[in-house]
Amino acid sequence: MNLNLEKIILKSLFNQEQYTRKILPYLKSDYFNERTEKVVFEELQKYILKYNARPSYEAIQISIGDLNNLTEDDYKSCCELIDEVSGIKDVKDEEWLYEQTEKFCQERALHNAILDSIHILDGKEKAKGKGAIPQLLTDALSVSFDPAVGHDYIDDADKRYEFYHKTEKRIPFDLEYFNKITKGGVSYKTLNIILAGTGVGKSLFMCHMAAACLNQGKNETHQTIQVMESIRQSKGEGRHCLHCASRTHRSKSGRARASIRQATQVRWIQDKWRVSVQNPRPLHHALRLEGDEPLRR
User: Fold this and answer.
1) What values do phi and psi take at 42, rounded to 5?
2) What's the CATH number where 130 sits?
3) pTM higher than the cut 0.70
4) Which among 33, 41, 247, 265 has most CB atoms closer than 10 A?
5) The domain boundary residue, chosen from 125, 141, 157
6) Taking the CA of residue 48 as centre, how many other CA atoms within 13 Å lie in the half-sphere pointing to its CB?
7) Based on C-alpha coordinates, what's the Rg of the chain?
8) Roughly how many angstroms between the first and final C-alpha of the chain, as a whole number?
9) CA proximity to 249, closest of 232, 233, 231, 261
């Protein structure tokens, strides 16, 4: 007897009710290679959906015999397959069977999607254009037996309790009030959005935050599709310059201090220290001397 996973699946559909109710919504006749396996599965599926019960082997043989699109040889082959399936021992490890069936469906769905895509590219599939290929592959890759669509208020109470009491690692602001309203800063691996009117200072605030993160030893990158590059450079370099100047006191390298002095000019204007950038290149050199990675705009 040539035993394969397809025959084990058919055997389990006959004998294991819990497995059948879990797996049947995801199985398709296209996942079976042999014509006889497809015919037996289709009749199994029709019977279960109609009577809401598992069929006997004899009932499926009778229903196959009533089909008008099968030859005598096909009918005999289907009966031989049913006899072969009936002689297979039941799989006791349901978890293994469930995982193997899910893997089988995923592989067959992807295989069929690739074949359909090739037929579309070759012009054999007239009903679908090339634009249908991405959706075919997306649907195939999304095959999963996970039925979760949300959380259960009662069953998931423990998970919610753990989530509510979870201590998250945060990146603190250098602004006291922002730490107060965010309960300690920005959580790791989160997306945060700054909203404000035009000209209020959103870009300036982001540059300030980038410099503050650098001051904490973090890496930062500044990406924008709106602000002109020259304006972004002037804002970013000014903030980075302040950051480098504050680190001068802690620098153990005379070359780093020299590079920062070469890059910046500090002047007392209107009762405030003003820092301007003369040459941004030494700033990057100074940070390398400090052991940091080069700045990325």
Assistant:
1) -60, -40
2) 1.10.860
3) no
4) 41
5) 141
6) 22
7) 33
8) 66
9) 261
Nearest-angstrom CA–CA distance, 17 and 11? 11
- How is residue 220 written in tokens? 């930062």
Range of the domain at 254: 197-289
Q: What is the distance between the alpha carbons of residues 193 and 187, in angstroms, rounded to a whole number?
A: 13
The one-letter amino acid code at 59 reads A
Do 44 and 60 form a contact (C-beta atoms < 8 A)? yes
- Domain end: 124, 141, 158, which one? 141
β-sheet bridge partners, residue 164: none
* Helical axes 5-15 vs 35-51, angle rounded to 10°: 20
| DSSP state at residue 29 | G
**Alpha helices (H) in the chain, listed in sequence order:** 5-15, 17-23, 35-51, 57-65, 72-86, 94-121, 133-141, 157-164, 176-181, 202-215, 229-247, 254-263, 281-289
> 208: Cβ–Cβ under 8 A, 6 or more apart, which residues?
239
Q: What is the pLDDT along the chain (297 residues), one digit of tens a residue?
A: 456 889 999 999 998 888 998 889 899 999 998 899 999 999 999 999 999 988 999 999 999 988 888 888 989 999 999 999 888 888 888 889 999 999 999 999 999 999 999 988 888 877 788 888 899 899 888 888 876 667 778 888 888 888 888 888 898 988 888 889 888 898 888 888 888 888 888 888 888 888 888 888 888 877 766 655 665 555 555 555 544 444 444 444 455 555 545 545 545 455 554 545 455 555 455 445 444 444 444
The DSSP 8-state label assigned to residue 152 in this structure reads: -
